[in-house]
């Protein structure tokens, strides 16, 4: 039993560290201006293919409705 206790503690220790790192990474990613970069990127792509992008969208809607 004495051996199991230290093993569990060792496992919980390393697991907690990675969890914190993952949370920090997620927070950083969310806080990072990555979302903002995606918005301008999408906007730039849409204007680039304005007519083409708009045409396929309504066509797909009609097909789905039918």
Distance between the termini: 67 Å
Low-confidence stretches: none
Strand tally, please? 0
User: Main β-sheet: number of strands, strand sense, barrel status?
Assistant: none
Summarize the structure.
Helix content is 88%, strand content 0%. The protein is built from four helices and no strands.
Report on this model:
The model has no long low-confidence stretch (mean pLDDT 54). This protein is an all-alpha fold. Helix content is 88%, strand content 0%.
Key traits:
mainly alpha
Write the layout of secondary structure elements.
Elements: H1 4-31, H2 34-48, H3 50-54, H4 56-65
């Amino acid at each position: 039993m004495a051996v199991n206790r230290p093993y569990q503690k060792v496992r919980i220790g390393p697991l907690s560290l990675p969890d914190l790192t993952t949370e920090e990474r997620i927070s950083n990613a969310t806080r990072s201006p990555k979302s903002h970069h995606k918005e301008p990127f999408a906007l730039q792509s849409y204007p680039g293919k304005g007519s083409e992008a708009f045409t396929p969208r309504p066509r797909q809607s009609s097909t789905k409705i039918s």
